[in-house]
Specification:
Length: 475
């Protein structure tokens, strides 16, 4: 909790006193209300705003052997983006909408889906890629090892990195591009191998006898090249020999300055399946509360960063089997369950995604959430809408704010009280927006996005078909 203070108490802002703050600071615990339920968070406005410096995590997870540090691509902890231009929030939201359209357009034929998505219509000139999240990790590849920073994405199957020499076009990346001819452990995958056939519709014939892949992410973004193997070092001691990945010879789209992507979806070619023997199709991550902190991505059980994790069943979403399906049963605001018929959530189903920023809800559920939230926040000044976000506040004159707790109930009696940082999308102190948006219809696929996952240890037990949430996974 260092660097950001927040404490929680039951009741309205009137009850806020120095005494309560002292309790919060000294015990770092949460006073509970009479019914034993937390109904609101009091948090400093400054803790919601990005800080210009990086405070790397010192959590227990960072000492686990199969753990990678997770960094927000656009924050002060990232070495990729020492960008003089501040993050354009409208662009982030446009890109997010493109990603949602891409996910919602995926067809049953998972081998076909990535290609079919080329037909999706996308906001003109958003200039953004959509198969891409906002968080990156750095892995080692080849012998000798080269460090590569890749976006990680639970919605994408194939891991790929740009490879020398480019065939047609490659984008500018921060780190030197991977060069197969300088790695003694590199091999091509033969066109006739089982691995090549697992590419399905993502295969694109042979180059000589070498298997080729081609992935399109729905706008003009794509990666194509050779399907190959090399040694992958998750950490210096955690080595995956003959890891299969795409050696991208022709890559387009704004993948930022990352070297490519690490695919964590539920698919034969993803890293999850490839490392099944070693890690038992079990991974977890924690996304930090703000870009000024770091989180982690961990493969395998190996201890666990948090003591208590609640599990909800993972479901398969019809026609979208590569994604991780979850069952949302209800939402509460300030401890009061919203009256939303359960069929509203079940008609379209939902997935959890590491790369979608804003949670997408059935419009019926969103409208109930918005009404309850606006009522609870009635004493604050509202601010103009920001793109898809229609409930924004001006907190520029506040030092602390009290916000109702938002609780998601998932199948299996799992109630998740979102972190205060998991409720808002912060453009600036004078425009802090409720980070949820409605789908067009209740029958559209819902998406539990990465803002809402912040600070939780999110555990994917793919073999056990369950998804876990543990609070305080990282700061
Ligand atoms: C942010 O991006 C949007 C959409 O691309 C653009 O219209 C707007 O001018 C940008 N704002 C700034 C400050 O660059
Ligand atoms: C799935 O996609 C593959 C490759 O594009 C195609 O050959 C196959 O017929 C498709 N299957 C179905 C059921 O559409
Ligand atoms: C891999 O295949 C490509 C394309 O066929 C070829 O140019 C390259 O020499 C092969 N590399 C190795 C190490 O076999
Ligand atoms: C290089 O591009 C040509 C077409 O321009 C294509 O036929 C060939 O398969 C590509 N090779 C690789 C390795 O991607």
């Amino acid at each position: 909790m260092e660097g950001s203070f927040f404490c929680v108490f039951n009741g309205a802002r009137l009850f806020l006193s120095l005494h309560i703050l002292m309790i919060c600071f000294t015990h770092k615990s949460y006073p509970y209300g009479v019914e034993g339920k937390i109904t609101s968070h009091t948090t400093s406005v400054s803790s919601l705003l990005p800080s210009p410096s990086c405070s790397p995590s010192t959590s227990k997870a960072s000492i686990r052997k199969s753990t990678l540090e997770v960094i927000h691509k656009h924050g002060p902890c990232s070495t990729l983006f020492q960008d003089p231009n501040p993050l354009n929030h409208t662009k982030v939201l446009l890109r997010d909408e493109s990603r949602v359209k891409w996910i919602q357009s995926q067809s049953s034929n998972s081998s076909d889906g990535l290609k079919a998505s080329a037909a999706v219509s996308l906001p003109a000139k958003s200039g953004m890629t959509i198969g891409i999240g906002n968080y990156v990790v750095t892995i080692g590849l080849g012998t000798p090892k080269k460090d590569l920073t890749l976006e990680f994405d639970t919605g994408s199957p194939l891991t790929w990195t740009q490879c020398e020499p480019c065939n047609r076009s490659c984008y500018t990346q921060s780190e030197p591009m991977f060069n197969p001819s300088q790695s003694s452990s590199y091999s091509n995958i033969s066109c006739t191998s089982t691995s090549c056939s697992q590419l399905g519709g993502r295969g694109s014939g042979c180059s000589g006898s070498t298997c080729q892949y081609s992935i399109r992410y729905g706008d003009q973004s794509s990666s194509m090249g050779l399907f190959v193997t090399d040694k992958l070092m998750i950490t210096p001691t955690e080595v995956i020999d003959k890891f299969e990945f795409g050696c991208g010879k022709n890559n387009q789209g704004l993948f930022g300055r990352t070297a490519g992507l690490i695919g964590l979806s539920n698919d034969k070619i993803s890293i999850v399946e490839q490392t099944a023997a070693k890690y038992g199709k079990y991974f977890s991550y924690c996304l930090p509360s703000s870009p000024s902190y770091t989180g982690h991505l961990t493969f395998g059980k190996d201890g666990g960063a948090v003591s208590s994790v609640s599990f909800t069943p993972l479901s398969t979403v019809p026609r979208r089997s590569q994604f991780y399906g979850i069952s949302i049963l209800g939402i509460a605001v300030g401890g009061n369950r919203l009256s939303i018929p359960s069929t509203v959530f079940s008609s379209g189903g939902a997935i959890i995604d590491s790369g979608t920023v804003i949670t997408r809800l059935p419009p019926t559920a969103y409208s109930a959430l918005r009404t309850a939230f606006r009522n609870a926040m009635a004493s604050y000044t509202m601010a103009p809408a920001l793109n898809i976000l229609d409930t924004c506040y001006d907190f520029s004159k506040e030092s602390t704010i009290t916000v109702p707790v938002i609780t998601f109930s998932f199948a299996g009696r799992v109630d998740v009280d979102l972190d205060p940082n998991g409720i808002f999308f912060v453009a600036k102190a004078s425009q802090v927006c409720l980070a949820f948006a409605p789908n067009r219809a209740d029958s559209n696929l819902g998406i539990y996005g990465n803002t809402q996952q912040k600070t939780f240890e999110v555990v994917y037990d793919v073999a056990g078909r369950k998804l876990g949430f543990g609070s305080n996974g990282c700061s």
